[in-house]
Design goal:
Layout (H helix, E strand, L loop, with lengths): L2 E4 L7 H14 L5 E4 L11 H17 L7 E3 L4 H12 L4 H5 L2 H7 L7 H17 L3 E3 L5 H18 L7 E3 L34 H9 L17 H14 L3 H5 L5 H27 L2 H30 L2
Helix pairs in contact: 2-11, 3-6, 3-12, 6-7, 8-11, 9-11
This protein binds adenosine-5'-diphosphate and sodium ion.
């Protein structure tokens, strides 16, 4: 069983959808779990009301994209279980091994008022994985050190106090298209981008999507050619179009005579690809009782899945 999280540090965007969520819905196994990692979004400056809205929107987008509600939960709905397990795991982790986490050094570098939780979040991540008994964790290179930590903690706990945890391993994630920022194709499209003009959000209205894509940076050429290094803006548009229409960016390139025509085609393809997700997400967000029911059921299942591990771990460590 695999567990994957998405951090609601912003609103779900096209890159999340084409690169991850759509793949999870189509190719994911029925045993995989997905969670909205809102506790992880509290490790840096955040706005509580916004975070709550972003967590609900993220959950709604996952379900609207076709991921079974049985397979999703919001992390903070398990705050008590995860808080307790994080403590157990902090008592299993040495300060030295936590201090070796490269991500902390990168994220904290030059920042004032760094939260302690930014330092300890890899232990919460270990709790996310170990509570559910996940054997595999699909992560990119940037998170593999954290999965190594979860492995080390599971092994150490099992050897010191008794066999409780499945020892997880990092696996390659299911990946779809890599979507770049529309106004700065040197960086990936991200929900936490400072410039929303370069980001298509899943819930953007069709006309806003069209405007953003029309304003996407290209280059001094005029006829679309697929050249990711030399012409990253146009390559990004071709990749988005190819992903939305299940084709290959090179094949798509030959079909549009001008950048203007390409942009129109990209805009329509994105609008159409997102339309059913946007409609279903909007429907869910407009039905708070249904959303609450989905959250509650997902949390109950996830808590139940972890209950015996948490209870055993507490007892074995001396509680
Ligand atoms: P963000 O940068 O938007 O905060 P996350 O780090 O929360 O994204 O990533 C959630 C999932 O979406 C991950 O599986 C990640 O690989 C995928 N993802 C995020 N941005 C993109 C992108 N621009 N293109 C493709 N996949 C992406
Ligand atoms: Na992010």
């Amino acid at each position: 069983m695999k567990v994957s999280g998405i951090t609601p540090s912003g609103r779900p965007q096209l890159g999340n959808y084409l690169g991850a969520i759509r793949r999870w819905a189509v190719d994911g196994s029925e045993h995989d779990l997905y969670f909205i990692g809102d506790l992880h979004a509290m490790t840096t400056t955040h706005n509580p009301a916004k975070l709550r809205a972003q967590a609900d929107e993220s959950l709604a987008v996952l379900v609207a994209s076709g991921i079974s509600p049985e397979r999703v939960f919001v992390q903070s709905d398990l705050a008590r279980e995860l808080g307790a397990l994080t403590w157990v795991l902090e008592c299993t982790c040495s300060y030295g091994e936590a201090a070796r986490m490269i991500q902390f050094k990168e994220k904290a570098d030059g920042q004032a008022g760094v939260r302690l939780s930014l330092f300890t979040y890899p232990v919460l991540m270990a709790a996310d994985i170990l509570l559910q008994g996940a054997s595999e964790v699909p992560v990119g290179e940037d998170q593999s050190q954290h999965v190594e930590l979860a492995r080390a903690l599971a092994r150490r706990f099992n050897a010191t106090y008794g066999e409780v945890f499945t020892v997880p391993r990092a696996v390659l994630p299911l990946t779809g298209a890599r979507v770049r920022d529309l106004t700065d194709p040197s960086r990936k499209m991200s929900k936490s981008s400072p410039d929303a003009g370069g980001v298509v959000f899943v819930l953007d209205e069709p006309d806003l999507i069209r405007r953003k894509i029309r304003r996407a940076v290209t280059d001094s050429g005029s006829t679309p050619v697929y050249d990711p290094d030399g012409r990253p803006g146009v390559a990004n548009l071709l990749e988005i179009l190819a992903a939305c229409t299940d084709r290959n960016p090179r094949d798509v390139a030959g079909e549009h005579a001008t950048y203007g025509a390409l942009k129109e085609a990209v805009a329509e393809a994105v609008v159409e690809a997102l339309r059913p997700v946007r409609e279903r997400t909007t429907e869910l967000l407009g039905d708070p009782a249904e959303l609450a029911r989905i959250r509650k059921a997902g949390a109950a299942r996830a808590a139940e899945r972890g209950e015996h591990r948490l209870n055993s771990a507490l007892r074995l460590i001396g509680a």
